[in-house]
Amino acid sequence: MKKTFLVVISLLMIYDLNYSQNQKNDVIPDESGCNYPVPYNIPQVKDIKEVLDRVKNYFVESTPYRIIDSKTGKTITDFSESNKNAVIDNSKGEFNQWSYTMGVVYAGMNLVTEVTGDKSFVDYAIKSYDFIFDSLPYFIKIDKKYGAKKEQYSQLMHMAALDHCGSIGAALIRTYEKNKDKRYRDMIDTVANYISKKQFRLEDGTLARERPQAQSLWSDDFYMSVPFLAQMGKLTGDKKYWDDAVKQVIQLSERLFDREKKIYDHGWNACEAKYDPKFYWSRANGWAMMAMAELLTVLPQNYIGRERVVDLINLTTQKLASLQDGTGFWHQMLDKESTYMETSGTAMFVFAIARGINKGWIDFTFSPIALAGWNAIVTKVLPNGQVDGTCIGTTFANDNVYYYNRPTSVYAMHGYGPVLLAGAEMITLMNNPKYDVKLNKAIMYRLKENN
User: Fold this and answer.
1) HEC profile for the chain?
2) So where are the chain's domains?
């Protein structure tokens, strides 16, 4: 017997948010007689890929791959002697750094290649990792003689936080699957040893930080740990990594997930646990959503604790659907419409929701949420491939003033990886054979199931 479910969704599509907000007369009437300030359409795979190509080309054209003398600006070619002025050329930004934001970029590059077959994306990740490992012995020598400079792979040489290894380590595993470089594997094992045995934890084993208070939890650390543990379990077959990943999601959620609001608090301090002030920052929730999606992707069916993770990602998705702005974006503070529309969190939600629909943990009726979000994101990808509207690096704070006034910047790397991930997953969704997507007077989703 064949069952057909039809969902009719009105979807607001965006072509230039900033322009349309200020040009009230520029409205496009759809055939139903309603007026929308933006085009009303379904994204095409070729158009999604064009956006991803722009972002990738921006990275390819902006990454210098050279070591320079910080005093003279000249390229260093003789590595036989330690030059204490040696630095990685970052004149154009954070490119080729060993950082958690670049880890998300490399994860996105990997996924686009997996989805589209376009090897140029993963080639960028491979070239960047190779540059890091080619350069590392020289900076180790300088570190021993003069001490490490903050931006010259000090986080790699002296790991002291999840930010230093988890995100970029997870992407390194994905890249290692395509380029079996022994240096990659050695560093993967180093990261695994740090997260499993050295990172500060609470007494119950929850991964924690000693800032801003002595015992603090950050929602950011979902992504700074769980994807690596998930990938490590897949790589090695050792279930201890999956057990730890599931434990982290559950135990972090016990303190950070607001069961009433169904979204995540940015941070929690043990010293104020009873009266914990709550701040529902968009990107904090994005980190949690992406981490759960990455874990569920590799976690076997019926694995102990899996259903609790599925429940958490669905509860959050349910709430995000109601919090999404009419533009398709989500706000900087999810529960405060007076805060600005923010790109990185929006892209993270689009990725996680689309991934959940494609894999079957999230119901297909949430597809319009992802579509609306993607069409919003497109308006923030500039012609040169830069991504606008991303909140810059943000610590765990305890006042609204701080979160409200964090600026956005095209140089905030936090938005680029999520856009690549979201676009790749949207291509998968648009190509998903389970669904027919049609545009008549509304967006129509048709799911066909054979019993």
Assistant:
1) CEEEEEEEECCCCCCCHHHHHHCCCCCEECCCCCEECCCCCCCCHHHHHHHHHHHHHHHHHHCCCCEEECCCCCECCCCCCCCCCEEECCCCCCCCCCCHHHHHHHHHHHHHHHHHCCHHHHHHHHHHHHHHHHHHHHHHHHHHHHCCCCCCCHHHHCCCCHHHCHHHHHHHHHHHCCCCCHHHHHHHHHHHHHHHHHCCECCCCCECECCCCCCEEEHHHHCCCHHHHHHHHHHHCCHHHHHHHHHHHHHHHHHHEECCCCEECCEEEHHHHHHCCCCCEHHHHHHHHHHHHHHHHHCCCCCCCHHHHHHHHHHHHHHHHHHCCCCCCEECECCCCCCCEEHHHHHHHHHHHHHHHHHCCCCHHHHHHHHHHHHHHHCCECCCCCECCCECCCCCCCCHHHHHCCCECCCCHHHHHHHHHHHHHHHHHHCCCCEEEEECCCEEEEEEEEC
2) 2-450
